[in-house]
């Protein structure tokens, strides 16, 4: 966002919508006057806690790729805009992990760090893609860990971090302040819940020693509310089982476990037409759901998630808001046509507030 007018216009549109949703229309003129004055003096403006909190929820509601948006109003918002040092940010991130994990009953949560200032370096930038993520190492005998993390793992090593070299090394939190040298911090093991994956009927699945972390906390997206950018605003919901069972653990360029699962179930892998991949996928997804449920960690299956999304669609219609969505992301990767989402069309228009991709702060 550059010119002051552009910031004011975005602020005005946001305040109008935010305050009317909160039934505070009468406060709009005074608030817009304040914002205009603050922009005149500083080139920017500061959200009230209520604007920040409702704006973050609107940003979730507008996330076209998210099937979990039924719960947008339940987001818990932590205001960490005042924090200035890497240590302070590290403690806020640990608190986020603990609070959101909540002993397994996951709470959708966002922690918002300092807003971007026109023409200045981002005050806080998180290098991690997610706060919890497994390292990936390229070795002579192939990749160890999560191939997805190879480039970032190298960055961590360049900063002096060393992993144990297992398939499930939690990466450190990497925090950059004012465009200076990034600092890394190991996450205390006690605050991280991980779920060993086992199968409700086939005991051999546990012997694969596969696990996954409980809470997906996206930390590399930029939140935009009313013309203000928040380059560091990590947020989480809970997992839908296919994200783990049909992608992270199954993709051939991730943990690539379908051949192993197929062999544990003695499936005929000699021909594609036995549908062994499909059968292995279903068993792996069942194992993920079973394990998370048994350990009391929130998870949703794709049929239930689609049903909740249908409710969201209805509520948005009732509220007189237009629904936007990205069909290619909304359909689950397993049995998509068994959900209503597959049979509908969605308008992939990006409305604001929202969460956006941003350029990586490191190269590679
Ligand atoms: N798909 C990503 C992963 O597997 C997580 C994205 C966010 N997912 C969520 N349920 N909030 O780690």
Q: What does this molecule look like?
A:
- The protein has 364 residues and is an alpha+beta fold.
- The chain has helices at residues 4-21, 28-42, 49-61, 86-101, 150-158, 241-248, 258-264, 276-294, 302-318, 327-330, and strands at residues 76-79, 109-112, 124-126, 136-139, 142-145, 173-177, 183-185, 194-196, 211-213, 217-218, 222-225, 228-230, 235-236, 239-240, 299-300, 354-356.
- The protein is globular and about 70 Å long.
- The two termini are 27 Å apart.
- The mean pLDDT is 98.
- The site of arginine has 9 residues, from β14 and α6.
- Arginine is lined by residues 68, 130, 216, 218, 237, 239-240, 243, 248.
Task: Offer a quick outline of the entry.
It contains 10 helices and 16 strands. With 364 residues, the protein is α+β, with helices and mostly antiparallel strands.
Walk me through the topology.
Layout: H1 4-21, H2 28-42, H3 49-61, E1 76-79, H4 86-101, E2 109-112, E3 124-126, E4 136-139, E5 142-145, H5 150-158, E6 173-177, E7 183-185, E8 194-196, E9 211-213, E10 217-218, E11 222-225, E12 228-230, E13 235-236, E14 239-240, H6 241-248, H7 258-264, H8 276-294, E15 299-300, H9 302-318, H10 327-330, E16 354-356
Parallel strand pairs: 1-2, 14-15
Antiparallel strand pairs: 2-13, 3-6, 4-5, 6-7, 8-9, 10-13, 11-12, 11-16
Helix pairs in contact: 1-2, 1-3, 6-8, 7-8
Bound molecules: arginine.
């Amino acid at each position: 966002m550059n010119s002051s007018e552009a910031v004011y216009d975005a602020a005005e549109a946001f305040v109008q919508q935010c305050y009317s949703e909160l039934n505070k229309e009468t406060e709009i003129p005074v608030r817009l006057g304040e914002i205009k004055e603050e922009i005149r003096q500083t080139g920017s403006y500061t959200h009230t806690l209520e604007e920040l909190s409702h704006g973050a929820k609107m940003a979730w509601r507008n996330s076209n790729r998210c099937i979990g948006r039924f719960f947008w109003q339940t987001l818990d918002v932590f205001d960490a805009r005042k924090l200035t040092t890497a240590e302070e940010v590290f403690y806020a991130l640990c608190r986020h992990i603990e609070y959101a994990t909540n002993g397994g009953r996951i709470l959708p949560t966002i922690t918002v760090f300092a807003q971007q200032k026109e023409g200045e370096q981002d005050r806080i930038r998180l290098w991690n893609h997610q706060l919890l993520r497994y390292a990936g190492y390229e070795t002579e005998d192939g990749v160890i860990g999560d191939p997805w993390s190879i480039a970032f793992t190298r960055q961590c090593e360049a900063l002096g971090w060393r992993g144990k070299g297992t398939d499930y090394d939690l990466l450190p939190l990497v925090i950059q302040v004012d465009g200076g040298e990034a600092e890394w911090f190991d996450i205390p093991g006690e605050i991280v819940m991980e779920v060993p994956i086992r199968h409700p009927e086939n005991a051999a699945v546990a012997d694969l020693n596969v696990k996954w972390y409980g809470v997906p906390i996206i930390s590399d997206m930029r939140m935009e509310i009313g013309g203000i950018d928040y380059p560091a605003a990590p947020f989480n919901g809970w997992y839908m089982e296919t994200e783990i069972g049909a992608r992270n653990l199954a993709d051939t360029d991730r943990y690539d476990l379908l051949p192993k699962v197929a062999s544990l179930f003695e499936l005929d892998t000699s021909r594609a037409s036995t549908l062994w991949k499909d059968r292995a996928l279903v068993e792996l997804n069942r194992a993920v759901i079973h394990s998370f449920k048994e350990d009391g960690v929130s998870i949703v299956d794709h049929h239930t998630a689609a049903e909740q999304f249908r409710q969201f669609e209805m509520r948005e219609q009732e509220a007189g808001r237009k629904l936007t969505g990205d069909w290619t992301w909304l359909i689950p990767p397993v049995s998509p046509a068994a959900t209503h989402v597959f049979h509908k069309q969605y308008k992939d228009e990006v409305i604001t507030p929202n969460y956006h991709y941003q350029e990586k702060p490191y190269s590679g």
